[in-house]
Design goal:
Elements lengths: L1 H5 L7 H4 L4 E5 L4 E5 L2 H6 L2 E3 L3 E2 L12 E8 L2 E9 L7 E5 L18 H11 L3 E5 L6 H15 L7 E6 L3 H8 L2 H4 L2 E7 L11 H4 L4 E6 L7 H14 L5 E7 L5 H5 L2 H9 L5
Parallel strand pairs: 2-12, 7-8, 7-9, 9-10, 10-11, 11-12
Antiparallel strand pairs: 1-2, 3-4, 5-6, 6-8
Length: 277
Protein backbone atom coordinates (compact mmCIF):
# COMPACT_ATOMS: atom_id res chain seq x y z
CA UNK A 1 0.00 0.00 0.00
CA UNK A 2 3.00 2.31 -0.34
CA UNK A 3 1.56 3.96 -3.41
CA UNK A 4 -1.65 4.81 -1.60
CA UNK A 5 0.14 6.31 1.37
CA UNK A 6 2.21 8.48 -0.99
CA UNK A 7 -0.84 9.91 -2.74
CA UNK A 8 -3.51 11.05 -0.27
CA UNK A 9 -6.34 13.13 -1.66
CA UNK A 10 -6.29 16.57 -0.07
CA UNK A 11 -9.51 18.08 1.28
CA UNK A 12 -11.65 20.49 -0.73
CA UNK A 13 -15.06 21.74 0.44
CA UNK A 14 -15.54 18.51 2.38
CA UNK A 15 -18.37 19.81 4.57
CA UNK A 16 -20.44 20.83 1.54
CA UNK A 17 -20.03 17.47 -0.21
CA UNK A 18 -20.27 15.10 2.75
CA UNK A 19 -23.18 12.65 2.75
CA UNK A 20 -26.19 14.30 4.43
CA UNK A 21 -26.90 11.37 6.76
CA UNK A 22 -26.42 7.62 6.91
CA UNK A 23 -29.81 5.93 7.31
CA UNK A 24 -28.42 2.42 7.60
CA UNK A 25 -25.06 0.69 7.54
CA UNK A 26 -23.80 -2.87 7.75
CA UNK A 27 -20.72 -5.00 7.21
CA UNK A 28 -18.47 -2.42 8.78
CA UNK A 29 -19.76 0.31 6.47
CA UNK A 30 -19.24 -1.69 3.28
CA UNK A 31 -22.94 -1.19 2.55
CA UNK A 32 -24.56 2.14 3.40
CA UNK A 33 -27.91 3.78 2.77
CA UNK A 34 -27.54 7.55 2.40
CA UNK A 35 -30.36 10.02 2.98
CA UNK A 36 -31.20 11.81 -0.28
CA UNK A 37 -33.91 14.41 -0.70
CA UNK A 38 -34.54 16.17 -3.99
CA UNK A 39 -35.80 19.39 -2.40
CA UNK A 40 -32.69 19.69 -0.27
CA UNK A 41 -30.03 18.15 -2.50
CA UNK A 42 -31.11 19.70 -5.80
CA UNK A 43 -33.44 22.63 -5.19
CA UNK A 44 -31.65 23.70 -2.03
CA UNK A 45 -28.19 23.30 -3.56
CA UNK A 46 -28.63 24.72 -7.05
CA UNK A 47 -29.13 28.34 -8.01
CA UNK A 48 -31.00 26.98 -11.04
CA UNK A 49 -32.20 23.43 -10.26
CA UNK A 50 -30.31 20.79 -12.30
CA UNK A 51 -28.61 23.48 -14.37
CA UNK A 52 -26.37 25.64 -12.18
CA UNK A 53 -25.18 24.94 -8.66
CA UNK A 54 -24.85 27.71 -6.07
CA UNK A 55 -21.53 29.56 -6.28
CA UNK A 56 -20.19 28.39 -2.91
CA UNK A 57 -19.89 24.81 -4.21
CA UNK A 58 -17.35 25.63 -6.91
CA UNK A 59 -13.84 27.03 -7.26
CA UNK A 60 -13.27 27.87 -10.90
CA UNK A 61 -9.61 28.83 -10.53
CA UNK A 62 -8.85 25.20 -11.37
CA UNK A 63 -9.51 26.06 -15.00
CA UNK A 64 -5.97 27.46 -15.11
CA UNK A 65 -4.67 23.88 -15.11
CA UNK A 66 -7.31 22.53 -17.49
CA UNK A 67 -6.58 21.86 -21.16
CA UNK A 68 -8.54 20.41 -24.07
CA UNK A 69 -6.28 17.98 -25.92
CA UNK A 70 -6.13 15.07 -28.35
CA UNK A 71 -4.01 11.97 -27.80
CA UNK A 72 -3.43 9.73 -30.79
CA UNK A 73 -3.53 6.07 -29.84
CA UNK A 74 -3.10 2.91 -31.90
CA UNK A 75 -6.90 2.58 -31.85
CA UNK A 76 -7.52 6.17 -32.93
CA UNK A 77 -7.49 9.72 -31.56
CA UNK A 78 -9.07 10.53 -28.20
CA UNK A 79 -10.27 14.07 -27.57
CA UNK A 80 -10.33 14.85 -23.88
CA UNK A 81 -9.89 17.37 -21.12
CA UNK A 82 -6.94 17.04 -18.77
CA UNK A 83 -6.90 18.83 -15.42
CA UNK A 84 -3.82 18.95 -13.19
CA UNK A 85 -0.37 17.46 -13.71
CA UNK A 86 0.12 15.87 -17.13
CA UNK A 87 3.65 14.83 -16.15
CA UNK A 88 4.50 13.11 -12.89
CA UNK A 89 0.97 12.90 -11.51
CA UNK A 90 0.65 11.16 -8.17
CA UNK A 91 -2.74 9.67 -9.00
CA UNK A 92 -4.85 9.61 -12.17
CA UNK A 93 -8.65 9.67 -12.18
CA UNK A 94 -10.65 9.32 -15.38
CA UNK A 95 -14.40 9.79 -15.77
CA UNK A 96 -16.13 7.89 -18.59
CA UNK A 97 -19.52 9.29 -19.53
CA UNK A 98 -22.61 7.30 -20.47
CA UNK A 99 -24.85 7.19 -23.54
CA UNK A 100 -25.37 10.64 -25.06
CA UNK A 101 -22.59 12.26 -23.03
CA UNK A 102 -19.27 13.69 -24.12
CA UNK A 103 -15.95 14.93 -22.74
CA UNK A 104 -17.51 18.21 -21.62
CA UNK A 105 -19.81 16.57 -19.11
CA UNK A 106 -16.96 15.59 -16.81
CA UNK A 107 -15.54 19.12 -16.60
CA UNK A 108 -18.79 21.08 -16.30
CA UNK A 109 -18.21 23.14 -13.17
CA UNK A 110 -21.84 23.92 -12.45
CA UNK A 111 -23.84 20.79 -13.32
CA UNK A 112 -24.49 17.80 -11.05
CA UNK A 113 -24.28 19.96 -7.95
CA UNK A 114 -20.69 21.03 -8.64
CA UNK A 115 -19.36 17.51 -8.11
CA UNK A 116 -17.24 17.55 -11.28
CA UNK A 117 -15.69 20.84 -10.20
CA UNK A 118 -14.84 19.18 -6.91
CA UNK A 119 -13.01 16.21 -8.47
CA UNK A 120 -11.07 18.63 -10.67
CA UNK A 121 -9.97 20.57 -7.61
CA UNK A 122 -9.22 17.44 -5.59
CA UNK A 123 -6.88 16.16 -8.28
CA UNK A 124 -5.19 19.51 -8.82
CA UNK A 125 -4.65 20.07 -5.08
CA UNK A 126 -3.25 16.54 -4.65
CA UNK A 127 -0.73 16.64 -7.47
CA UNK A 128 -2.95 14.38 -9.52
CA UNK A 129 -4.42 14.32 -13.01
CA UNK A 130 -8.09 14.20 -13.93
CA UNK A 131 -9.20 13.14 -17.41
CA UNK A 132 -12.58 13.47 -19.09
CA UNK A 133 -12.50 11.95 -22.60
CA UNK A 134 -14.99 11.39 -25.38
CA UNK A 135 -15.86 7.69 -25.15
CA UNK A 136 -16.87 7.33 -28.79
CA UNK A 137 -18.43 3.90 -28.39
CA UNK A 138 -18.86 1.25 -25.71
CA UNK A 139 -17.41 -1.67 -27.65
CA UNK A 140 -13.91 -3.03 -28.09
CA UNK A 141 -12.81 -0.03 -30.16
CA UNK A 142 -13.90 2.43 -27.50
CA UNK A 143 -12.19 0.43 -24.77
CA UNK A 144 -9.00 0.27 -26.84
CA UNK A 145 -8.96 4.05 -27.29
CA UNK A 146 -9.47 4.68 -23.58
CA UNK A 147 -6.80 2.11 -22.71
CA UNK A 148 -4.47 3.93 -25.10
CA UNK A 149 -5.26 7.27 -23.47
CA UNK A 150 -4.53 5.86 -20.02
CA UNK A 151 -1.31 4.23 -21.24
CA UNK A 152 -0.19 7.61 -22.62
CA UNK A 153 -0.53 9.35 -19.27
CA UNK A 154 0.54 6.35 -17.18
CA UNK A 155 3.88 6.37 -19.01
CA UNK A 156 4.34 9.96 -17.85
CA UNK A 157 3.45 9.17 -14.25
CA UNK A 158 5.31 6.00 -13.22
CA UNK A 159 3.68 4.32 -10.26
CA UNK A 160 0.58 6.52 -10.19
CA UNK A 161 -2.56 4.47 -9.47
CA UNK A 162 -5.38 4.92 -11.97
CA UNK A 163 -9.00 5.18 -10.82
CA UNK A 164 -11.63 4.66 -13.52
CA UNK A 165 -15.06 6.15 -12.77
CA UNK A 166 -17.90 5.15 -15.08
CA UNK A 167 -21.32 6.76 -15.29
CA UNK A 168 -24.31 4.72 -16.51
CA UNK A 169 -23.43 2.96 -19.81
CA UNK A 170 -19.82 3.95 -19.28
CA UNK A 171 -19.73 0.96 -16.95
CA UNK A 172 -19.37 -1.27 -20.00
CA UNK A 173 -15.92 0.25 -20.43
CA UNK A 174 -15.10 -0.09 -16.74
CA UNK A 175 -15.61 -3.84 -17.04
CA UNK A 176 -13.70 -4.06 -20.33
CA UNK A 177 -10.74 -2.16 -18.87
CA UNK A 178 -10.81 -4.38 -15.77
CA UNK A 179 -9.65 -7.24 -17.95
CA UNK A 180 -6.82 -5.37 -19.67
CA UNK A 181 -3.70 -7.17 -18.34
CA UNK A 182 -1.45 -4.19 -19.06
CA UNK A 183 -3.76 -1.88 -17.12
CA UNK A 184 -4.88 -4.06 -14.21
CA UNK A 185 -1.61 -3.64 -12.36
CA UNK A 186 -2.02 0.14 -12.37
CA UNK A 187 -5.68 0.26 -11.37
CA UNK A 188 -6.35 1.97 -8.07
CA UNK A 189 -10.07 1.37 -8.25
CA UNK A 190 -13.26 1.21 -10.28
CA UNK A 191 -16.27 3.43 -9.60
CA UNK A 192 -19.67 2.40 -11.00
CA UNK A 193 -22.01 5.39 -10.80
CA UNK A 194 -25.61 4.49 -11.59
CA UNK A 195 -24.22 1.73 -13.76
CA UNK A 196 -24.68 -1.96 -14.48
CA UNK A 197 -23.45 -5.35 -13.30
CA UNK A 198 -21.28 -7.79 -15.20
CA UNK A 199 -20.57 -11.35 -14.10
CA UNK A 200 -17.46 -11.43 -16.26
CA UNK A 201 -15.79 -9.10 -13.77
CA UNK A 202 -15.42 -12.08 -11.43
CA UNK A 203 -12.97 -13.60 -13.91
CA UNK A 204 -11.10 -10.39 -14.75
CA UNK A 205 -7.49 -9.40 -14.12
CA UNK A 206 -8.72 -6.59 -11.83
CA UNK A 207 -10.76 -9.01 -9.71
CA UNK A 208 -7.77 -11.33 -9.31
CA UNK A 209 -5.72 -8.35 -8.13
CA UNK A 210 -8.54 -7.35 -5.73
CA UNK A 211 -8.86 -3.88 -7.23
CA UNK A 212 -11.28 -1.88 -5.03
CA UNK A 213 -14.76 -1.36 -6.46
CA UNK A 214 -17.28 1.32 -5.50
CA UNK A 215 -20.97 1.19 -6.41
CA UNK A 216 -23.11 4.32 -6.10
CA UNK A 217 -26.78 3.79 -6.97
CA UNK A 218 -30.10 5.54 -6.56
CA UNK A 219 -32.88 3.41 -5.10
CA UNK A 220 -35.28 4.83 -7.68
CA UNK A 221 -33.05 4.22 -10.71
CA UNK A 222 -35.32 3.16 -13.58
CA UNK A 223 -32.45 2.39 -16.01
CA UNK A 224 -30.48 -0.10 -13.93
CA UNK A 225 -32.44 -1.60 -11.04
CA UNK A 226 -30.83 -1.11 -7.66
CA UNK A 227 -31.66 -4.63 -6.47
CA UNK A 228 -29.73 -6.14 -9.38
CA UNK A 229 -26.67 -4.03 -8.57
CA UNK A 230 -26.93 -4.84 -4.88
CA UNK A 231 -27.09 -8.54 -5.74
CA UNK A 232 -23.94 -8.20 -7.84
CA UNK A 233 -22.17 -6.43 -4.98
CA UNK A 234 -23.04 -9.37 -2.72
CA UNK A 235 -21.89 -11.77 -5.43
CA UNK A 236 -18.44 -10.18 -5.40
CA UNK A 237 -18.22 -10.37 -1.63
CA UNK A 238 -19.31 -14.02 -1.62
CA UNK A 239 -16.86 -14.99 -4.37
CA UNK A 240 -13.93 -13.39 -2.56
CA UNK A 241 -14.49 -12.85 1.18
CA UNK A 242 -13.04 -9.57 2.35
CA UNK A 243 -12.91 -8.16 -1.18
CA UNK A 244 -12.67 -4.33 -1.07
CA UNK A 245 -16.13 -3.49 -2.39
CA UNK A 246 -18.27 -0.60 -1.16
CA UNK A 247 -21.93 0.08 -1.93
CA UNK A 248 -23.65 3.42 -1.31
CA UNK A 249 -27.40 3.44 -1.91
CA UNK A 250 -28.95 6.90 -2.24
CA UNK A 251 -32.45 6.43 -0.89
CA UNK A 252 -35.10 7.87 -3.29
CA UNK A 253 -32.32 8.87 -5.70
CA UNK A 254 -32.66 8.55 -9.48
CA UNK A 255 -30.31 7.41 -12.26
CA UNK A 256 -28.09 10.50 -12.14
CA UNK A 257 -28.02 10.88 -8.35
CA UNK A 258 -24.69 9.07 -7.76
CA UNK A 259 -22.89 11.45 -10.13
CA UNK A 260 -24.22 14.39 -8.13
CA UNK A 261 -23.90 12.93 -4.65
CA UNK A 262 -20.90 10.56 -4.49
CA UNK A 263 -18.23 11.87 -2.15
CA UNK A 264 -15.18 11.75 -4.42
CA UNK A 265 -12.60 12.36 -1.72
CA UNK A 266 -13.92 9.77 0.70
CA UNK A 267 -14.21 7.20 -2.08
CA UNK A 268 -10.77 7.80 -3.58
CA UNK A 269 -9.02 7.71 -0.22
CA UNK A 270 -10.84 4.49 0.64
CA UNK A 271 -9.65 2.94 -2.62
CA UNK A 272 -6.07 4.14 -2.37
CA UNK A 273 -5.65 2.75 1.13
CA UNK A 274 -6.90 -0.69 0.05
CA UNK A 275 -5.28 -1.29 -3.32
CA UNK A 276 -2.43 -3.70 -3.64
CA UNK A 277 0.89 -2.53 -5.05
Amino acid sequence: MATAAAAPIAPHKDALFAYPAILASRDGGAYRVVDYREMRDINGRDAVPERRVARRYVATGVRRVQAELTVRTAAGPVRHFAVGRREGARVITVYLHGQGGNRRQGVDDFSFGGNFNRIKNLMALSGGLYLSPDVGDFGEAGAARIAGLLAHYAARAPGAPIVVACGSMGGVLCYRLADEPALAGRLGGLMLLGSMWHEGFLHSAAFRRRVPVFFGHGSGDTVFAVDRQEAFFERIRAAAPGYPALFVRFETGSHGTPIRMTDWRETLNWMLTRRRD
